[in-house]
């Protein structure tokens, strides 16, 4: 497979590396391998092993040179990070998740993630299941509106869903620019210059890939894999993701009672096997945002399994 023109620039790389502080003999999971930016940095920092997981078979296929270079120290697995517990055996010293899509996925028009260039309305990271075209062409209008509101935080969601439903009666959607054009007829252009279809595309991508369900399961699986002193480092890119990461880590660290599992008892002590590494999330500095605008909304949160916690 030929390499894409531009590889993904890893976001908050130094901060993630500092959080994991790789050590000789350690085992680390990179649950969102992408172009391998984190994995390579970890492998270069210590004589350790990295298990790289990506749900996109193309990301794994592109890593054949890295695989040759690092040999047995790099294990690559085409899977979802929600499946981490099944595909990784034994406990590990660190887990990194860098959420969302890679530049290679966005820049390849045929993957359908972008409305900058025309391409098939696909958006599937794994190439499996319903495409974005299936979603906009078949779901009931009300369901479509809910998805666009919930996952895109689009206040014109009902208008967007109505415009999609009206248009698909005549002709189903097949391309990204076609959909973006229809959305732009009902969503006013924002002052900040953000394209009117941005939030609708985000919503469809999250829905098609069940990104928030994946995140919930991946966080639980990642925390469960950690050895004592092991760390889970998660980089998120929008408030829906960060809200889930923050709530999960606070609950694990005993900052808020575990909701919904059982009737909470007042002042009940919590099993505090974990602690938060930082009170506030770490953000990119001005220089990183200047060099890589995609990093501007990134937030890193880190959970540590306490040294004294049982395996
Ligand atoms: C932001 S990129 C990661 C970039 C990587 N850190 C690097 O430095 O090259 C996100 C990657 O995670 C993958 N991904 C997203 N959700 C996933 C999931 N639930 N399970 C496994 N991989 C996932 C995507 O296919 C994409 O390749």
Task: Please describe the structure with a list of short key phrases separated by commas or semicolons.
single chain; 311 residues; alpha/beta; Rossmann fold; DNA polymerase, domain 1; seven-stranded mixed sheet; 14% strand; globular; binds S-adenosylmethionine
Task: Give a structural overview.
The structure is a single chain. With 311 residues, the chain is of the alpha/beta class. Helices cover 41% and strands 14% of the residues. It has helices spanning 13-20, 37-45, 57-61, 64-70, 84-87, 103-107, 132-138, 141-152, 157-170, 176-184, 198-208, 211-225, 239-252, 286-291, and strands at 27-30, 49-54, 74-78, 92-98, 226-236, 274-276, 299-305. It has a seven-stranded mixed β-sheet with strand order 3-2-1-4-5-7-6, sandwiched between helices. The protein is globular, with a radius of gyration of 20 Å. Bound molecules: S-adenosylmethionine (SAM). S-adenosylmethionine binds next to α2 and β2.
The fold-level CATH name of the largest domain is Rossmann fold
Distance between the termini: 41 Å
Named at the architecture level, the CATH assignment of the largest domain is: 3-Layer(aba) Sandwich
> Could you estimate the helical fraction of the residues in percent?
40-55%
Run of helices and strands: HEHEHHEHEHHHHHHHEHEHE
Bound molecules: S-adenosylmethionine
Low-confidence residue ranges: none
What's the overall average pLDDT, rounded? Answer: 93
CATH class of the largest domain: Alpha Beta
Query: CATH superfamily membership of the largest domain, which one?
Result: Vaccinia Virus protein VP39
Describe the strand arrangement of the main beta sheet, using strand numbers: 3-2-1-4-5-7-6
Count of individual domains: 2
Outline, from the CA principal axes?
Answer: globular
So what's the oligomer here? single chain
Our Rg estimate from Cα atoms comes to 20 Å
What structural category do the secondary elements indicate?
alpha/beta
Q: Proportion of β residues?
A: 5-15%
Largest sheet: 7 strands, mixed
């Amino acid at each position: 497979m030929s390499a894409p023109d531009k590889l993904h620039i890893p976001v908050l790389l130094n901060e993630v590396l500092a959080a994991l502080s790789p050590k000789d003999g350690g085992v680390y999971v990179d649950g969102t391998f992408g172009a391998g930016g984190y994995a390579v940095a970890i492998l270069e920092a210590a004589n350790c092993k990295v298990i790289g997981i990506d749900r996109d078979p193309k990301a794994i296929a592109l890593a054949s040179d890295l695989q040759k270079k690092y040999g047995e120290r790099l294990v690559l697995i085409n899977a979802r990070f929600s499946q981490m517990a099944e595909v990784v055996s034994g406990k590990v010293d660190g887990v990194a998740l860098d959420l969302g899509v890679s530049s290679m996925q966005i820049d390849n028009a045929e993957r359908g993630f972008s409305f900058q260039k025309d391409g098939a309305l696909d958006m599937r990271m794994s190439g499996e299941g319903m495409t974005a075209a299936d979603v906009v062409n078949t779901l009931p209008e009300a369901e479509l509106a809910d998805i666009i509101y919930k996952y895109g935080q689009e206040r014109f969601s009902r208008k967007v869903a109505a415009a999609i439903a009206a248009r698909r009666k005549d002709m189903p959607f097949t391309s990204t620019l076609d959909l973006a054009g229809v959305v732009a007829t009902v969503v006013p252009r924002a002052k900040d210059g953000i394209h009117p279809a941005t939030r609708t595309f985000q919503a469809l991508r999250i829905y098609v890939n069940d990104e928030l369900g994946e995140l919930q399961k991946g966080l639980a699986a990642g925390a469960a894999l950690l050895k004592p002193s092991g760390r889970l480092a998660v980089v998120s890119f929008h408030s829906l993701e960060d809200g889930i990461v923050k709530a999960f880590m606070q609950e694990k660290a005993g900052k808020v009672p575990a909701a919904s599992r059982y009737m909470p008892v007042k002042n009940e002590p919590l099993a505090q096997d974990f602690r938060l590494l930082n009170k506030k999330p770490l953000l990119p500095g001005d220089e990183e945002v200047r060099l890589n605008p995609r990093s501007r909304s990134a937030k890193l949160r880190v959970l540590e399994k306490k040294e004294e916690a049982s395996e």
